[in-house]
């Protein structure tokens, strides 16, 4: 029966179930003490702060939906074609002009029917007397406009379906690039970017990713009526970068925190390169040696990347210089509060002006080879009270912790999510 159910589950979902089965297997293999602890982990529909039990029958039931709006069998379905209007569709199904009029005046929600477009579906229920008793018009994956006949009047409403969430896992070890490892782990492009985004304050995705680095994450998959409609949030993730482990847990506020409750978000990004562009361009920095001869003592970090790669402000601040000279090429300096200054040199083109306020992550220019350079790169400097520091290792201001009143709840969640990640690791090991 289970097998039969699984066949009807979308492929991604099936994989998740495979993983869950493996969890069950591992639970059986673990010493009893640990089984006890692990059984309390959240797996199904993982909503931070809410309890779920892990069991196979639960998963199977997720594909049989309880809250369908209507039995599609009782309805005539009409796929909207180019040039179709409500009137022409109704006419085709032998409904009167008066019905068309009444339906179109069935309240505010009914106005949506003016916006039908090719490919949309309309479902009509017509009784034996040829009277339209109900119309269903799915607006999105989760919302449907309903028009129902009641006391010789049409009434419109929009109903929203439940989105079912299940948690799936991904894990990978970097062999050639983070991007490849992500794809191999079954992640979507967006998820790979999100993962990099979560750790972008701690890890320099532009230049510090090494072979052997690994990641492990739990993420939501969204289902409506048993159909996979897309990925939800990453709910917990771990990234091991050159031996350092970083863990992020999503809390109910949607933000990510360390297991101790410190925000992942910090005043400065680890690298001022738009990691999205960088990661997806699959660029290998080892192939580039942009600066062979250094004219003066090197007081910054060089980022080699394709010309045109967006360079971003590593923190919120004010542009105190945006200019050109023959050494720096096109350059931008940003002041962050009293203490910190960041400098960005050799742009192909600047994207900000002197005096402008910029936000962390905002593009301030595009990587180039202007000024005294031997190859395209970004030269980045980080100054604390006017003294040059290594931006990769400098001690940065401590991030804001989670509210004291919510700390206990968060810590509980964090522990469970970490259990989840650890279980995933064991499964993957067992599968190897
Ligand atoms: Zn440099």
Plain-language structure description:
With 432 residues, this protein is an alpha+beta fold. It has 3 domains: 1-61 and 167-266 and 421-432, Nuclear Transport Factor 2, Chain: A (Roll); 72-160, Nuclear Transport Factor 2, Chain: A (Roll); 275-389, Glucose Permease (Domain IIA) (Distorted Sandwich). Helices cover 24% and strands 30% of the residues. Strands 11, 12, 13, 14, 15, 16, 17, 18 and 19 form a 9-stranded antiparallel β-sheet that branches. A hairpin with a 2-residue loop joins strand 18 and strand 19. Helix 5 (86-92) crosses helix 6 (97-104). The protein starts with a helix and ends with a helix. Mean pLDDT is 80; it is low at 1-69 and 282-295. The structure holds zinc ion. Residues 291, 298, 300, 302, 379 line the site of zinc ion (ZN).
Which terms would index this structure?
Glucose Permease (Domain IIA), 432 residues, alpha+beta, metal-binding, OapA family protein, Dup_hybrid_motif, 19 strands, binds zinc ion, 24% helix, 9-stranded antiparallel sheet, Nuclear Transport Factor 2, Chain: A
